[in-house]
Design a protein that fits this description.
Strand content: 15-25%
Shape: elongated
CATH architecture of the largest domain: 2-Layer Sandwich
Helix content: 40-55%
Distance between the termini: 85 Å
CATH class of the largest domain: Alpha Beta
Number of domains: 2
Bound molecules: 3,4-dihydroxyphenylalanine
Length: 357
């Protein structure tokens, strides 16, 4: 019995893992194991022999079982230690900054403008970039022969042979969204419409695709005074200055009557412009009182309603605000440029949280 004990305790001590331990358990104290076989031999013994051998066998079985349990616990501890060692992590290391890209200045400025007009009660509306000739021109009081059509350098879409409808156009301005929103929502209305527009023009200050933001307010008693106030509020908030002077110059647009081009106060110093101070003026948008024919085209009765509209270049005011010298660089997708002029991706512009930093 001492031999058995030595053999199994030795094997248990050397077992490398739980599987080896289980094998030992089966051969030693399992139902058909060596100890069980010895137990069966008890029957052949004399009562005296049995009285000695019985308790001794039980004691052996207990001893092997507790050695198995102890070894199993030790193996478990060792495995846990090993795992803790391999999964160790220094949580005091500084975090890694990851480049997740930046927000393009056009997107940033669109968000800023939307936030400001949102505070003024203007909702944001969108329309398609490919539009019909009717929405882009006729509905805005620009009939077929109108010189404004030629001036716009329009991109026309292809029509299948035999299809003699007027070709669709890449919208040349965001003004068609005025008509679409009037049709969809009726009066009263207070919207801005930001988005991309297209004209066949490419030089230092023009790209074939650029961005505009349209504004439209329709109600019973809207006047040019409301337009002036809204624009001055907007420019002061956008350029993050206390007040800003505007200058309204009489102008002509087919879709407004009267029409005005609006300049903002600025100064020039060493070729850079500063907005909100000085004696110079910078043209930033076109505007006016919505032409009765335009209201009619949008399904709104000009005898009951009137309103103002304006359209300005997003790219233009982005360049002014952020001192970006070259318009064409906006659309070059140059990573170095994007990193330099881009904005942090998690800073959403709001009037309370700050438009820009
Ligand atoms: N659509 C004009 C353009 O692209 C800009 C414009 C001028 C829009 C006057 C307006 C407006 O709504 O009233 O040049």
């Amino acid at each position: 019995m001492d031999d058995l004990k030595q053999k199994y305790l030795g094997q248990i001590a050397n077992a490398a893992d739980e599987a080896a331990l289980e094998d030992i358990r089966v051969t030693a104290v399992g139902k058909k194991g060596e100890v069980a076989l010895k137990m069966r031999e008890l029957g052949k013994m004399t009562p005296e022999e049995r009285q000695v051998a019985g308790p001794a066998l039980n004691a052996l079985k207990d001893e092997i079982n507790s050695a198995l349990a102890a070894k199993k616990a030790a193996l478990g501890d060792a495995a846990l230690d090993e795992r803790l060692r391999s999964e160790w992590l220094d949580v005091s290391l500084p975090g890694r900054t990851r480049r997740v890209g930046t927000i393009h200045p056009i997107s940033q400025v669109t968000e800023e403008v939307t936030a400001i007009f949102g505070e003024l009660g203007f909702a944001s509306a969108e329309g398609p970039r490919i539009d019909t000739d009717w929405y882009n021109f006729d509905a805005l009081n620009i009939p077929g022969h109108h010189p404004a059509r030629a001036e716009m350098d329009t991109f026309y879409m292809h029509r299948a042979e035999g299809d003699d409808r007027a070709p669709n156009v890449l919208r040349t301005h965001t003004s068609p969204v005025q008509i679409r929103t009037m049709e969809a929502e009726g009066a009263p209305l207070r919207i801005i419409c930001p988005g991309g527009v297209y004209r066949a023009d490419y030089d230092q200050t023009h790209t074939p695709m650029f961005h505009q933001i349209e504004g439209l307010a329709i109600d019973k008693d809207i006047s040019m005074a409301n337009l002036k106030w809204v624009l001055e509020e907007f420019f002061a908030a956008f350029f993050e200055v206390d007040t800003i002077k505007t200058r309204f110059r009489a102008s002509h647009f087919p879709f407004t009557e009267p029409s005005a081009e609006v300049d903002i106060q600025c100064s020039w110093e060493n070729g850079t412009v500063k907005v909100g101070e000085g004696d110079d003026w910078l043209e930033v948008l076109g505007s006016g009182m919505v032409h009765p024919k335009v209201l009619q085209a949008g399904g709104i009765d000009p005898n009951d309603w009137q309103g103002f509209a304006f359209g300005m270049g997003i790219d233009r005011i982005a360049m002014l605000k952020y001192g970006i010298p070259d318009l064409r660089a906006f659309f070059d997708s140059d990573l170095r440029w994007l990193r330099h002029y881009g904005f942090a991706s998690l800073d959403v512009p709001t009037l309370h949280g700050g438009l820009s930093r």
